[in-house]
Write a structure and sequence with these properties.
CATH topology of the largest domain: Rossmann fold
Distance between the termini: 18 Å
Order of helices and strands: EHEHEEHEHEHEHEHEEHEHEHEHEHEHHH
Structural class: alpha/beta
Helix content: 40-55%
Oligomer: single chain
CATH class of the largest domain: Alpha Beta
Number of helices: 15
Radius of gyration: 22 Å
């Protein structure tokens, strides 16, 4: 079975990591897998480290920021660039004769569209809340419903994603949770042993990831005399963004009392090692499509707290983790206070969450389900000839 996995971006991201892991495991089923990139980027290091094949087929995403969905020079230039790129992409697809083209994200479309025009079965992987999380939408000159509905199937990475897109699109969408390799993260350790307790939130610094909520909760605890928590904000920060500036302004003003205990660590390449230094990971996101950070944290033995929203709510099992109401800073503070006062209880829960995560979100299980979907779809296509 010859598969083309199509990436929407060339940076190292959760979606691209999942794609690489899937490609590696599909090879164990005898699949001949190639990854298609829109341009060169950091993800190539990950691809080459796993000895995977890839090709760069230049094209442009069809998504734009919500506030820039207008006819301007940049958007028109990319639109025209996609028109010019079609013939090269089609020539490649005809030459390679793929059995399935699997579009790893709905943020890009051109390779999938070319495959559909060539009657190659195409799968769309629904991985993101475009508007809610990324503040993106489709450029107005495109017709996503018409293109996506020509796919033979879709894959949603959570029930929340399935709920959104199954209403919007007519193709059959299957819910298959992301697969995350646990070997890179797994470690045996005892958390909550020392002071200060190391708290972390991981993800790009933006409104959707909602780091400000944790900063305010930490300040609230300080005012109650609880000062043995250190917060690490891990992820890309745009120092000129209004959101980042608002957090800094708070730490220089109302929250000055905790300023020396809040660290902006930026992007950490060996995040697997960093997890092992963390006691508690908080996922306060407004709308996570899945919740990769929560799973990685559970694999690593951290205790996880998450906002009761979208994919985060699905990933966390309240027997082993804690959910709180998004925006309820007082409740988040109470959860952190409980952890400080009942360390042994939460240490045991963190160990149980490791077992739960492996049984539920393993890369092996994900690849097995997707491979079975491939076989069934190809069988259906053959029967329809």
């Amino acid at each position: 079975m010859k598969i083309l996995l199509v990436s929407s971006q060339s940076a190292i991201s959760g979606a691209n990591k999942s794609m690489c892991v899937l490609a590696e495991h599909l090879q164990l089923y005898g699949c001949d897998v190639t990854i298609a990139l829109r341009k060169h980027g950091d993800i190539i290091n990950e691809i080459e480290a796993r000895n995977l094949k890839y090709i760069v087929l230049k094209n442009y995403a069809w998504t734009v920021p919500l506030n820039r969905n207008n006819i301007n020079k940049t958007n028109i230039g990319k639109y025209c660039g996609n028109i010019l790129a079609k013939q090269k992409i089609k020539r490649y697809l005809k030459k390679e004769k793929f059995d399935i083209v699997h579009n790893n994200s709905i943020s890009s479309f051109l390779i999938a569209k070319c495959a559909e025009e060539l009657k190659i079965p195409t799968i769309w992987h629904f991985r993101e809340f475009l508007e809610e999380d990324h503040h993106l939408t489709f450029f107005k000159l495109y017709n996503p419903e018409k293109i996506i509905n020509k796919g033979v199937a879709g894959i949603a990475i959570s029930k929340s994603i399935l709920s959104k897109y199954s209403v919007k699109y007519k193709l059959p969408i299957h819910m298959i949770y992301n697969g995350i390799e646990y070997a890179d993260f797994w470690c045996e350790r005892e958390i909550l042993q020392n002071d200060p307790i190391i708290l972390a939130v991981i993800g790009r610094v933006c409104e959707g990831k909602n780091q400000f909520e944790i900063v305010k909760a930490l300040s609230l605890l300080h005012n109650k005399g609880i000062k043995n928590i250190e917060l690490h904000i891990i992820g890309n920060k745009e120092e000129h963004s209004d959101y980042y500036k608002s957090i800094i302004s708070y730490l220089n003003g109302t929250g000055a009392c905790i300023k020396d205990r809040v660290y902006f660590d930026g992007v950490i390449s060996d995040i697997e090692r960093k997890y092992r230094e963390i006691d508690v990971v908080v996922v306060p996101s407004v709308a996570e499509a899945f919740g990769r950070v929560a799973v990685e944290a559970m694999y690593s033995g951290c205790y996880v707290i998450g906002a009761n929203t979208a994919g985060t709510s699905e990933v966390l099992d309240e027997r082993y983790s804690t959910k709180y109401e998004l925006g309820n800073i007082a409740e988040l503070g109470r959860v952190l206070e409980s952890i400080i006062d009942n360390r042994k209880e939460y240490r045991i829960k963190a160990k149980e969450s490791q077992k739960y995560a492996i049984n539920t979100f393993s890369a092996e299980r994900n690849a097995e389900l997707i491979y079975e979907l491939y076989k069934n779809l190809l069988s259906d296509c053959e029967n329809q000839k």
